[in-house]
C-alpha cells in the first residue's frame, strides 16, 4: 500500500508524523495539491466510512492530509480520489492520547492499512514512533472488526456500537447522574 501525504506544514516540525514517515521512506510528501496522486483520500468530512471494499477503489494508494486539527476544514481536502472517513479509532499519540477521532497522519494511514487487511504495512508505518504499537493495541478490537466488514454500512454499524459504548462510559463517570440514568440531586 503506497502512502502519499499532502503536507501543509502548519504543525510543529519536531512532532510532525508525516515528515518522519518521509524520513523513513514510508510515505511521499507533496507541498502542491495538484501533484498528489489519485487514491483513497482519508477525509474526516467524507460522507462514507472507509471499508475493506475501498481497497481496490484506490488502486493501492492511500492519501492523507497533514495539517493541524484547527485547519482541517472540509475545503482543505480538495484532492482527487475516493474520499472516505475513518471510523471510530482512539489516538495513541502523546498530544491527543485516548481521544477518539483525533489521530495523527501516521495513525490515520496505519488504521486504514489495518482496515484494508494489511497489518504488516500498518506496523511498518508506526515503527518509528515510540507510541506506535500502543495505537494498534488500543484499537485492536475495532480494527479487527472493521477489517471483517464487507462495506461501509457494516463499518458504520460497528462504529455505532463503539460510540454507544463511549456515551455509556461517559454517563457512568458523570457525577450528575447515577447508574439508572436518573439525575442525582445537587446540593
Automatic annotation (TrEMBL):
Segments for region (Disordered): 162-187
Biased composition regions of type Basic and acidic residues, renumbered to the chain: 170-187
Domain 16S/18S rRNA aminocarboxypropyltransferase Tsr3 C-terminal: 40-163
Entry keyword annotation includes Transmembrane: no
Pfam families noted in UniProt: Fer4_RLI (PF04068), Ribo_biogen_C (PF04034)
Residues involved in S-adenosyl-L-methionine binding: 17, 65, 86, 105
Single GO biological process annotation from the record: enzyme-directed rRNA pseudouridine synthesis
Keywords annotated in UniProt: Cytoplasm, Ribosome biogenesis, rRNA processing, S-adenosyl-L-methionine, Transferase
Chief place of localization: cytoplasm
Catalytic reaction(s) noted: an N(1)-methylpseudouridine in rRNA + S-adenosyl-L-methionine = N(1)-methyl-N(3)-[(3S)-3-amino-3-carboxypropyl]pseudouridine in rRNA + S-methyl-5'-thioadenosine + H(+)
Listed InterPro entries: RNaseL-inhib-like_metal-bd_dom, Tsr3-like, Tsr3_C
An example molecular function term from Gene Ontology annotations: S-adenosyl-L-methionine binding
Compartment list: Cytoplasm
GO cellular component, one term: cytoplasm
Keyword rRNA processing among UniProt keywords: yes
Enzyme Commission (EC) number: 2.5.1.157
Domain spans labelled RNase L inhibitor RLI-like possible metal-binding: 3-25
NCBIfam families in the cross-refs: PRK02287.1 (NF002621)
Function of the molecule: Aminocarboxypropyltransferase that catalyzes the aminocarboxypropyl transfer on pseudouridine corresponding to position 914 in M.jannaschii 16S rRNA. It constitutes the last step in biosynthesis of the hypermodified N1-methyl-N3-(3-amino-3-carboxypropyl) pseudouridine (m1acp3-Psi).
Family that this chain belongs to: Belongs to the TDD superfamily. TSR3 family.
Name listed for the protein in its UniProt record: 16S rRNA aminocarboxypropyltransferase
Amino acid at each position: 500500500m503506497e502512502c502519499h501525504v499532502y503536507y501543509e506544514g502548519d504543525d510543529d516540525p519536531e512532532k510532525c508524523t508525516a515528515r518522519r514517515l518521509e524520513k523513513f521512506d514510508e510515505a511521499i510528501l507533496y507541498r502542491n495539491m495538484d501533484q498528489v496522486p489519485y487514491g483513497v483520500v482519508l477525509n474526516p468530512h467524507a460522507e462514507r466510512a472507509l471499508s475493506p471494499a475501498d481497497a481496490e477503489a484506490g488502486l493501492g494508494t492511500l492519501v492523507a492530509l497533514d495539517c493541524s486539527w484547527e485547519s482541517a476544514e472540509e475545503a482543505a481536502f480538495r484532492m482527487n480520489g475516493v474520499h472516505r472517513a475513518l471510523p471510530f479509532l482512539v489516538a495513541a499519540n502523546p498530544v491527543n492520547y485516548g481521544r477518539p477521532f483525533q489521530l495523527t497522519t501516521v495513525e490515520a494511514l496505519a488504521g486504514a492499512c489495518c482496515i484494508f487487511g494489511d497489518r504488516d504495512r500498518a506496523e511498518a508505518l508506526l515503527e518509528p514512533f515510540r507510541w506506535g504499537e500502543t495505537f494498534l493495541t488500543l484499537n485492536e478490537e475495532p480494527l479487527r472488526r472493521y477489517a471483517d466488514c464487507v462495506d461501509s454500512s457494516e463499518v458504520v454499524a460497528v462504529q455505532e456500537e463503539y460510540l454507544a459504548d463511549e456515551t455509556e462510559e461517559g454517563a457512568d463517570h458523570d457525577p450528575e447522574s447515577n447508574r439508572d440514568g436518573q439525575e442525582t440531586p445537587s446540593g
